[in-house]
Amino acid sequence: MWGSSASVHTAGHAIACLLANRGPNVAGSSLCGPYSGTGIALKLLWWAADKSCVQRWALIAGLSLALGGATLVGIGEWAASHVENTAVDGRPSAGFANSSFSPSRVSPSSLPDLPDPSDHLPANSPGYTFRHDVPEVRLQFTVADERGRLVNDLTSGDVRVFDNQSPVLHFNEFERDDDLPLELGLLLDTSDSVKRVLPQEKRAAIEFLDQVMRPRTDNAFVVAFGGDYKTWQGSTSDRQRLIEAIDRMKEPGWGTRVFDALYAACSGQPASGGDKTVHRVMIVLTDGDDTDSLHTLNDVIAAAQRSEIQIYPLTIHSRKIFTRGDGVLKRLADSTGGELYIAASVRELAAAFAQIGRDLRTQYYISFPPQQSTPGYHSLRVEVRTPKRLEVHARQGYYALQE
Questions:
Q1: CA separation for the pair 346, 285 (Å, rounded)
Q2: CA nearest 250: which of 201, 184, 191?
Q3: What is the pLDDT of residue 339?
């Protein structure tokens, strides 16, 4: 545009000079008539339009105006459609809310069952026992000497419990837990990594049920897990039905979902309440190598402590090594008050099951009021005051929610 103005100005200046040099005679010529100004302007425009630089600048200006107009039109259409899809109070209108991007349109059946965030722990939190209110803390534990032999002659004066580092001054109950009804879960790993010893595991599990379960008093259920998990027999006191379920077990898919199976089993057990007190235990035969679970180790610990469940893992390999899976299983046991057992071979499975049975019948049970009414995590620590060096297996805390 600046080039075209300069050209017109130059042309005008040249014509003015020409008219001035022509003198008075010019006034009488056709240029001095009533349309002389219009004629000069037309001639100047024609002359300027003949210049290539003017033509280029005119083309550029035209294209710029066209693009600018198209852009403004597009912005206007977008703004109009956005206003239509937005309600007066700023929330999306029905048309937008029902679009394919809305999470509510994802079909629940297409997703696996996930833990409810309101009642389980985040992955980086320690395992807690969740209770809506905690009028009384109930704790079961075992005590063993340096050689692993169970100690069963302690009195309430020998035991000290610390609730959030505050000593418990009074026990509502202190007794030997050798007669409580058992709620037993038996979980067997049937994945490809352990299938060679599965027949022996089944036989040892059946012998364990025969030795431990008391008719019409104890209940048990059976779960198998591999790439999936399945309850082969729900909770029952009928040992024959449990034995038949163990015989029918087979691998439900490839992979290993230890955490998912344990989480489902623990989540199905309500926390203790009312006058009836039961001893809840999960015994899991596995190498601890989880490959496909959606839940985490902390999820399992949270679910177990929420329902006051002790977990006893049992694995088979040489005692001279300690595998990554052993570390997972030991944490499960330590956090819930159970104990990890390692059988050096399948021939030792029966002896390991027998030791677990003795553990279940040689426990201490205590109850006491919370030492602090503050909601949240309460750590628990149990100490035994005797001259001997003893080891205590007890869960590590509970979680009190405000009423």
A1: 12
A2: 191
A3: 93
